[in-house]
Amino acid sequence: MPKYPVGNADQISNGTLVHAQAAGRDLCIARTDDGEFFAIDDACTHEEASLSDGDLLGREIQCPLHNSRFDLATGAVRGLPATEPTRSYSTAVGDDGVLYVEIEA
After folding, report:
1. Is residue 59 within 8 Å of residue 71, measured between CB atoms?
2. What is the count of structural domains for the chain?
3. Which among 82, 65, 72, 62 has a CA at the least distance from the CA of 41?
4. CA–CA dist 52, 49 (Å, integer)
5. Which of 39, 43, 91, 95 lies 20 to 30 A from 25 at CA?
6. Beta pairing class for 69-71 and 60-62
7. Which pLDDT value is given to residue 82?
8. For 12-21, what is each residue's pLDDT tens digit?
């Protein structure tokens, strides 16, 4: 599966969300308080709000519009009103310090 660079890993602080683009997709990149990276589609499946503007709650993200919650590892819905999961993507930090996201072509 192709890997796409989305930024330098050391420039993303623990406990933050950032917007990135790769392979024509808008992504929400999350770095949890313990330094783990996750990537999901940036749009909430409920009403298209940008998840990167939301809140990071452990390994979940909360939408800024209506508080839908998603599991960062799987994209599964963890809180209504969203009922459809979002896509999640594998991440890896390369030897070059760059964060890569795997996106199926």
Report:
1. yes
2. 1
3. 72
4. 9
5. 95
6. antiparallel
7. 98
8. 999 999 999 9
**73: CATH:** 2.102.10.10
Specify whether the CB–CB gap between 29 and 39 falls below 8 A. Answer: yes
Q: Which two tokens stand for residue 101?
A: 């996201």
Q: Which string of b and e fits 51-84 if b means at least 16 CB within 10 Å?
A: bbebebeebbbbbebeebbbbbeebebbeeebee
For 24-77, write each residue's pLDDT tens digit: 999 999 999 999 999 999 999 999 899 999 999 999 999 999 999 999 999 999
Q: Which domain holds residue 90?
A: 3-102
DSSP conformation letters of 39-101: EEESB-TTT--BGGGSEEETTEEE-TTT--EEETTT--EEETT--S---EE-EEE-TTSEEEE
Residue 25 CB neighbours (<10 A): 16
